[in-house]
Amino acid sequence: MRRREFLKGALTAAAAAALSASSQGRGISDPGMSDKLRIRYFISEEGKILPAPLESLKRIYFMDVDYNPLPVRSNPTNQEGMLVSEIPRVPFKITCADWVDGFGWVYIVVDNGGAGYKPEELRGEVNLNAEAARSRLKAVESACEEARIAGVVLSADIQRRIEKAHSLMTSGQLEKDQLAAVRKYWDALSELMWAGETVSVDRARYAISKMPPRKGFKFGANAFHCLDAGEEYTRAFYDLLNYCTLPFYYRSFEPERGKPAWDRLNRMVEWCAKGSITPKGHPLVWFHPAGVPNWLDDKSFDNVKRFHEERITKIVTYYRSRIDYWDVINEAHDFANTLNFSYDQLLDITAAACRTARAANRKATLVVNNTALWGEYAAPKPGEPLPKTMRHTALQYVADCIKGGFDFDVIGLQIYYPHRDMFEIDRMLERFGRFGKPVHITEHAMASDTSEDPASNVKTPWGQWHAPHSQANQADWIEQLWTIAYSKPFVTAITYWDFCDKGGHFWPHGGFLDKDLKPKEVYFRVQKLLRSWGVSKTG
What is the DSSP letter of 380? Predict the structure, then answer.
């Protein structure tokens, strides 16, 4: 697939518009504010530097220092590659998403090395490409220094890439031709993206080398095919993993009112017990269409809340001591909200779901599960009117759940899609780690092929990380992600999503096993990784 075709399709949703929480105190600019920021931005198209077209400019948005999108008025101009915006009143960052030659299709964070910009720091015209390179250089050098102080011996490749980036950026500053200068900044950014990822992985490997094996750590996948995929699937799962997710989607678990699918789930639980697999139920509450039964005619908040409290009590009580891990609520941060509940209502039902599940099983581990961690779905598009209210991000939602004293044990994080680099994933995990609760990576996936996958839910592989999707590239991505996650004491479980590509899987070519149930390279890579950490099931 040509990159231009990908840009038109895959990230349309990621730059989604509507926002929902009061804008008061969130950095909204005054309508009469005279200060403007002129953002000049270029893209690389088939190796050529060009002024950014409208579709690229519409993926630029402002964030606060915690990556929560800010409602800032901005408009493309008649001059191609130029965006004019008001300046936020609060410290801010800027992000865009495009192709970085030699690295991949990625969200690029312009954040002054991580600290963000004070409102008075950026004025007039800013070349976003140059500022992106400066920001990542500052962040990577700071990360290198912290790692060295901690005793990490960094790969020689990191310093080589940093020095090359310095040289390119110095040359870019002296370049009289604007397009030639941008080319050098963009090449410098590519070097720094690689360097940043390597710092994160080197630091993680060092941390792992200094810790004993984490014997209680859970590593798993969903086991949705455990009853129908046969012996090859079962043997591969039993040999590799110790944890799994079982499906309790309201619509399919109880297709007829009062007739839950106990028998099928009971057999799944028995399958888990035979292989020493710890099961987790997913999800008890989810306001995606799959989580709302067809027979539910009265969709008022009070009725929906009552039905879910009854459902949670019934299911959690029924499986007490057989399933003691639950994704109590899924994606309730203004993301999956087909019933259009207010944010306050989503918080209300989150609290009620946690409280009800706890009453049904005091020993249960309760997970509040979140997706789209960077909150790009909440970002306003340049050129469109600002909404009256802001949508909330996962980070804001978790903070509100904790502030409200909701009775849950674990913050669940989904990390789908290859357009976030490992340096940014590392930093995002740390943001959620600061809440002082254990973190589970509950879902993630990576394609192993570039072709369409008609048997999967998502048909077309997204983006590109380092190289076109392949088994080796999939294995590299997962090895790096698992290594970074395992190195953090607050991360206590990792769950991949599709274990196989048998059909009905979510992510295209995303399984550890192919459609014929043969292990891919990632299966053996993970097996080797777990053995090196001393937590493998097979020694």
Answer: P
Specify the amino acid at residue 386.
L
Query: Phi, psi (5° rounding) for residue 207?
Result: -60, -40
Structural domains present in the chain: 3-206 (no CATH), 214-533 (3.20.20.80)
Distance of CA 82 to the CA centre of its chain: 29
**Alpha-carbon distance values, 8 to 44, 63, 78, 246, 419 (Å):** 16, 23, 21, 35, 15
User: What SS3 class is residue 213?
Assistant: coil
SS3 content of the chain, % helix, strand, coil (to 5): 40, 20, 40
Question: How many Cβ atoms are within 10 Å of 261's Cβ, its own excluded?
Answer: 15
Q: Which pLDDT tens digit goes with each residue over 165-206?
A: 999 999 999 999 999 999 999 999 999 999 999 999 999 999
Contacts of 477 (CB under 8 A, 6+ apart): 418, 446, 465
For the stretch 98-147, pLDDT in tens is 999 999 999 999 999 999 999 989 989 999 999 999 999 999 999 999 99
User: Can you tell me the distance from the alpha carbon of 207 to that of 210, in angstroms, rounded to the nearest whole number?
Assistant: 5
* Most distant pair of Cα atoms in the chain: their distance: 73
Strand partners for 49: 44
Residue with tokens 């990625």: 106
β-pair partners for 246: 281
In this structure, of 20-34, 148-162, 348-362, 384-398, the range with the lowest mean pLDDT score is 20-34
Does the CA dihedral 231-236-240-243 come out positive or negative? negative
